[in-house]
């Protein structure tokens, strides 16, 4: 599935991921391939991307969570996510 993370200043990440973990108002939630369409607000926390690789252009924006798994994170203050038809856009600050 394709995920794009945007801030008002730049594109943080765009690429294929197997899933994404997001900080929602009522707790973290996981979006995986073929997830039902969703629009949700996000609170401060970490957006975690589960992916095999990250393009070098975006690697500088992300933190690798550990060496064993391919999990990358990006800290946000707030935002909104829209996901439909295996494409997601995360607008955040």
UniProtKB/TrEMBL annotation:
InterPro entries with a match to the protein in the record: ATP_synth_F1_dsu/esu (IPR001469), ATP_synth_F1_dsu/esu_N (IPR020546), ATPsynth_dsu/esu_N (IPR036771)
Keyword Signal attached: no
Keywords tagged on the record: ATP synthesis, CF(1), Ion transport, Membrane, Transport
Primary localisation category: membrane
Localization: Endomembrane system
Domain ATP synthase F1 complex delta/epsilon subunit N-terminal positions: 1-56
Purpose of the protein: Produces ATP from ADP in the presence of a proton gradient across the membrane.
Protein name, entry field: F-type H+-transporting ATPase subunit epsilon
């Amino acid at each position: 599935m394709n995920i794009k993370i945007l801030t008002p200043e730049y594109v943080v990440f765009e690429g294929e991921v197997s899933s994404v973990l997001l900080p929602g108002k009522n707790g973290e939630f996981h979006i995986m391939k073929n997830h039902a369409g969703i629009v949700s607000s996000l609170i401060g926390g970490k957006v975690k991307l589960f992916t095999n690789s990250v393009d070098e252009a975006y690697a500088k924006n992300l933190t690798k969570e550990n060496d064993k798994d391919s999990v990358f994170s990006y800290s946000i203050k707030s935002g909104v996510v829209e996901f439909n038809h295996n494409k997601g856009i995360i607008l955040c600050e």
